Amino acid sequence: MSRNQELFTRALDSIPGGVNSPVRAFGSVGGTPRFIQRANGPYFWDADGKRYIDYIGSWGPMIVGHAHPAVIEAVQRVLGDGFSFGAPTEAEIEIAEEIRKLVPSIEQVRMVSSGTEATMSALRLARGFTRRDRIVKFEGCYHGHADSLLVKAGSGLLTFGNPTSAGVPADTAHHTTVLEYNNVEQLDEAFAAFGDEIAAVIVEPVAGNMNLVRGTTAFLQALRERCTQHGAVLIFDEVMCGFRVALGGAQALYGITPDLTCLGKVIGGGMPAAAFGGRRDIMAQISPLGPVYQAGTLSGNPVAVAAGLATLKLIQAPGFHARLGEQTAKLATALTDAAREAGVTFNAASVGGMFGMYFAAHAPQRFSDIQAAGTPLFNAFFHHMLDAGVYFAPSAFEAGFVSSQHDDAVIDATAHAARAAFAALAE
Ligand code: PLP
After folding, report:
1. Position 146 pLDDT exceeds 80
2. Among the atoms of ligand 1, which is closest to the Cα of residue 207?
3. Is the minimum distance from the CB of 398 to ligand 1 under 6 angstroms?
4. How remote is the CA of residue 240 from the centroid of ligand 1, in Å?
5. CA 306, CA 71: separation in Å to the nearest integer?
6. Is 113 in the pocket of ligand 1 (CB under 6 A)?
7. At what positions is N6-(pyridoxal phosphate)lysine found (predicted)?
8. What is the pLDDT of residue 363?
9. What is the dihedral of CA 351, 355, 361, 367, to 10 degrees?
10. Which among 113, 202, 239 is the best mutation to test ligand 1's pocket, defined by most ligand atoms within 8 Å of the CB?
């Protein structure tokens, strides 16, 4: 039995499903999850000592690669001074100022410990600010696991949303309306029907949780305009795409300014840190200034802030995002070429340092397009690549992530493995 298998069997006894977050269990692709022992640069090694090129990067945070010396040094520098104080620190001001500089729509920002906390808090704030209850989200976007966000569309536009998880009260889901991504017509219908009840619209401007789906400019502009017209708060959930599709995030890429922004992943450099921020008048509603309660024992944790600050400094190196975008586009092209050579219907796309792989002829626009693409083919491709030492996300519904350590040799090695994998699929 492999050591991975041994560990999985042992984990199943003490941890539900053997994992601390469901997708890690390989449920949708099948097989044994790899237990990771260590990582460096673009690689990690599993419990059997096998090396993989890592295209997950901890689902986004590891944009400068694993165990970057500058991040390690920053963390080591603060470790000896204590891990958590529950009192303010100068480093928290520094990271807030750095975030404001990089994302100018953020006038004030509050640190939290996970993306879920960031979106949950931003929604409560938007509701407190507008004194409205209804929120709008889009099918296929994931915003963490707060109750009001684990909701799918009802049978029609004007029907209530339904929970996607047991344990979410129907009463909570009723306040969430779920619309189709990139569908301006449906958005207009919703705003015409109940625009003045909407507290907030939350969106992943570049969606990475239904594979990679790019928001169209027309769609994101329509969101901005409708929210302004109806006094709703526009929340960009940039937990995944922030600092990754461009230094200033998707809002810089599209030139569209949200009212609030949620950040996570890169902002903690692999440590538990996230944030939400935006317009000063809205942020003024948060406790202790205003009536909206929000708090956290470990919020602004000094070790997490040190890792985050070091990462934010590294991504400001001249040309960082241009090169990251080039390498990611190179990967997408190499994969698409490899599939074409083998005669497999497939395309890959990228935005900055994120990419998507689709067993379909064209890049998708919405969740239903992803559902229609071939999951069994993806699963077979995933396992061929895993065997060859290339670790993609273990689900056809996730985006991929490239780091600044994925150099030409790494991309070439991936392309080499992909040619063999696609050839095997074509047999
Ligand atoms: N928002 C987006 C866009 C995400 O991709 C995620 C996680 O993948 C979250 C929120 C939730 O973040 P966390 O897993 O840190 O709670």
Report:
1. yes
2. 3
3. no
4. 7
5. 8
6. no
7. 265
8. 87
9. -90
10. 239
Query: Greatest CA separation found in the chain?
Result: 65
Nearest CA among 115, 146, 123 for reference residue 267: 115
User: Token pair of 68, please?
Assistant: 């970057």
Kindly give, in sequence order, each residue whose CB lies less than 8 Å from that of residue 397, ignoring residues fewer than 6 positions away. 28, 209, 210, 211, 370
Distance, in Å, from the CA atom of 427 to the CA atom of 422, rounded to the nearest integer, reads 9
Q: 285 — phi, psi (to 5°)?
A: -85, -10
Per-residue pLDDT band at 348 (split at 50, 70, 90): very high
Ligand 1 site, residue 121, Cβ cutoff 6 A: no
Catalytic residue positions, numbered: 142, 237, 265
* ipTM beyond cut 0.90: yes
Phi first, then psi: what are they for 261, rounded to 5°? -130, 140
In degrees and rounded to multiples of 5, residue 154 shows phi and psi of -80, -170
Cross-strand partners of 40: 43
Model pLDDT for residues 271-324, shown as the tens digit of each residue? 999 999 999 999 999 999 999 999 999 999 999 999 999 999 999 999 999 999
Residue 255 to residue 253: CA distance in whole angstroms: 6
Could you read off the pLDDT of 173-225 as tens digits, one per residue?
999 999 999 999 999 999 999 999 999 999 999 999 999 999 999 999 999 99
Give yes or no for residue 119 CB within 6 A of ligand 1.
yes
Angle at 296 between CA 293 and CA 299, to 5 degrees: 125
pTM: 0.98
Report the SS3 class of residue 115: helix
Which amino acid would we find at residue 82? G
Q: Which two tokens stand for residue 53?
A: 């090129």
Any atom of ligand 1 within 6 Å of the Cβ of 264: yes
What is the CA(206)–ligand 1 centre distance, in A?
13
For residue 109, give the H/E element and its range. strand 108-112
Mean pLDDT value across residues 40-51: 98
Could you give the domains of the chain? 3-63+318-426 (3.90.1150.10), 69-314 (3.40.640.10)
For 29, residues 6+ apart whose C-beta sits below 8 A from its C-beta are 378, 379, 382, 383, 394, 395
Q: Whose CA is nearest to atom 14 of ligand 1?
A: 115
Q: Ligand 1, residues 23, 111, 138, 143: which to mutate, most atoms within 8 A of Cβ?
A: 143
Position 375 confidence tier, pLDDT thresholds 50, 70, 90: confident
